[in-house]
Amino acid sequence: MIDRIALVAARELRAERRQPDGVVAAVTFIAVLVLLESLVVGPQIARDADVASALFWLALAFATILATMRSFDRELEDDALEGLVALPGGRDALFGGKVLSLAVVLVLVAAIGGLLSLVLLDLPVALPLHLLVVVLLGVVALPPIVVVDVVLALRLRARAALVPILALPVLVPQLVAATRGTSAALTGDALGALSWAGLLFAFAVVYTVVGLTIVPAAIE
Amino acid sequence: MIETTIPRGTPLPRIRPWLGIAAAASFVVASAMALFWAPTDAVQGDVYRILYVHVPLAWLAYLAFVVVFLASVAWLWTKRPFFDAVAVASAEIGVLFTGLFLVAGSIWAKPTWGVWWTWEPRLVTTAIMFVMYVGYLLLRGLSTDFSRRATRAAVFGIVAVIDVPIVHLSVLWANSLHQLPTVLRIAGSPALDTPMLVTLMVSLGAYTLVYAYFMSARVSLELARQGRLWTRT
């Protein structure tokens, strides 16, 4: 099973490297939002740790949706989904592989988007290591839910509107935890940052297990 | 062959009229007790009587979405359309009662907190739960194939249920304006006067009967609709 998941993830990452439109779209989206934020609310409010963290994670949630939808669009355009699902254990591997590859892609997106936020907003970071842990776990906690919702909305009309409606309310606990954890790391609250990071880890594990258990039934 | 009728041996059609009568009668009794029998609250006065509507609506919202979860698991397990009918019926009724729960809460908030709406964890998580199940109904509405629709909705029904404990426990997890639980308290017995508690329990029973009646009617309608769909195809 692990081998098959790794195979799908590697294939996905190869496709993303050859045609990196998912990553480019996600990074551009975050950059636009960071720039807009300081213009709309003013640099003083934009530099507030809570505001900057909230916007970063909301942008990353939308970026995850964009990247996931692009990833499945590529499968549909190439008629590759049927072949993948037909393989033994293909459905589990498809879910696991997509989640894994998206997490890797999102680490890249979060690194670029995070650096942009830090530089453009001139944010001071009190606990860099804690920030890294929170961001890594936050990035791992987002893809399982988004992949589930993109699979559910596959081949439906109004899919672009439906996926955010389904995914964002379910992502609320992860977004709250990631925002609070990031803000705590920026302002020097080590215990707060690690507590929220622990919650993010728990959500990542729960939704990955739930996804691996029930999503294969939804892939047709 | 897909079974699209009420499972054999289910007394649902026979008991529905009686369920309707019991729901209506208990609703009248609960309303009379709430308005005339329960004592006036020492702090809030008569305004607090909305409690006898607000709390049962909250209970029904939770109950409805837990039933969606259980029916979704049962559909994925057995693929019997009866369970999909139960899930859609409970989701629709749950959305209705969650909407009413939010409205009743808002009406209660104005005289007690001074605002119709405030960014308070219980209110926001309840609104998110409402949107989540509107999304569930949207997902169903956009799918055309019966089996795929039921499966997609079931998966989402299982994922979405996690919001129910989040809504309930949000008042404990965050400092909020909303009062802490008064009946199901970790600290011990309910923090309510006996006549108030009795009235609340009668209201909870009455609203649960209303839910059961709505469910029996909506499940029958859904099964009839499924039956027509299968006859046509």
What would you say this structure looks like, in words?
The complex is a heterodimer of chains A (220) and B (233). With 220 residues, chain A is mostly helical. Chain A contains ten helices and no strands. In chain A, helix 4 runs antiparallel to helix 9, helix 6 runs antiparallel to helix 7 (128-141) and helix 6 (90-120) packs antiparallel against helix 10 (190-218). The two termini of chain A are 20 Å apart. The mean pLDDT of chain A is 86. Chain B has a single domain, classed as Four Helix Bundle (Hemerythrin (Met), subunit A), CATH 1.20.120. In chain B, 75% of the residues lie in helices and 0% in strands. Chain B contains seven helices and no strands. In chain B, helix 2 crosses helix 5 (146-160), helix 3 (81-113) packs antiparallel against helix 4 (121-142) and helix 4 (121-142) packs antiparallel against helix 6 (163-173). The longest helix of chain B has 39 residues, at 194-232. The chains are: A mainly alpha (220), B mainly alpha (233).
Tell me the total number of β-strands of chain A.
Answer: 0
Uncertain runs of chain A are: none
Structural class of chain A: mainly alpha
Oligomerization: heterodimer
Count of distinct strands of chain B = 0
**Pair with the most extensive interface?**
A-B, 24 and 24 residues
Number of structural units classed as domains of chain A: 1
Query: SSE order of chain A, as H and E?
Result: HHHHHHHHHH
Report Rg of chain A: 17 Å
Q: N-to-C terminal Cα separation of chain A, in Å?
A: 20 Å
Estimate the helix proportion of chain A, in percent.
over 70%
- Output mean pLDDT of chain B: 85
Please give the domain count of chain B. 1
* N-C termini distance of chain B: 13 Å
Low-confidence stretches of chain B: none
Taken from the alpha-carbon principal axes, the silhouette of chain A is globular
